[in-house]
Amino acid sequence: MFTVLVIILLAILALLGVAATRPGQFRIERSATIQASPERIFPLINDFHRWQAWSPYERKDPAMERSYEGPKVGEGAIYGWNGNKDIGSGRMQITESIPSSRIEIRLEFFAPFKATNTAEFVLEPHGEGTRVTWAMHGRSSFMHKLMGLVFNMDKLVGKDFEEGLGHLRGLSEGRVAA
């Protein structure tokens, strides 16, 4: 019995040790080329009121409570949400808005876990269209590192980014009504 307890304790310590060696920062990023100008795409991102038309998170809980503060668009605009267990609650604030090229957002999660990250959208002309890059980066807490041993956060969140960019493409290219 004692040997089994020692083995379990050593396994737990090894798991915690591996988690502790993981990187202290993370970055999740996806890109898509959209056949529309940056000027057509930018307002869909720069106005939180328009996110319901394309954000994958809006589809996970259409009944979530939303709040808006500050200016309607651009720097200083704030969007808060309180949703189901899949969405949790949090707040986003646009901290930088460079017309038709870049938007940076302070992203705060309150539940189901607390975290503060940065989300960014970069729009670059690409041939006849625009390359849109959606990224999120921040500090990896010990809990995030530990969860990363079991869940591939890049794949989980990256899948949502890919879905959102697909919806953004449909809207921007006029294939889906806003």
What do these coordinates show?
It is built from 5 helices and 7 strands. The protein is α+β, with helices and mostly antiparallel strands. The chain has a 7-stranded antiparallel beta sheet with strand order 1-7-6-5-4-3-2. Strand 6 and strand 7 form a beta hairpin. It starts with a helix and ends in a 6-residue tail after the last helix.
Set out the fold topology:
Elements lengths: L1 H19 L4 E10 L3 H9 L9 H5 L4 E5 L8 E5 L6 E10 L3 E10 L3 E12 L2 E11 L2 H7 L4 H20 L6
Antiparallel strand pairs: 1-7, 2-3, 3-4, 4-5, 5-6, 6-7
Helix pairs in contact: 1-4
Strand order of the largest sheet: 1-7-6-5-4-3-2
**Overall mean pLDDT score?**
89
Q: From N to C, what is the helix and strand string?
A: HEHHEEEEEEHH
Q: Which class best fits the helix and strand makeup?
A: alpha+beta
**Largest sheet entry:** 7 strands, antiparallel
Bulk shape: elongated
Pick out its properties.
178 residues, seven-stranded antiparallel β-sheet, 35% strand, elongated
In short:
The protein has helices spanning 2-20, 38-46, 56-60, 142-148, 153-172; strands spanning 25-34, 65-69, 78-82, 89-98, 102-111, 115-126, 129-139. It has 178 residues and is α+β, with helices and mostly antiparallel strands.
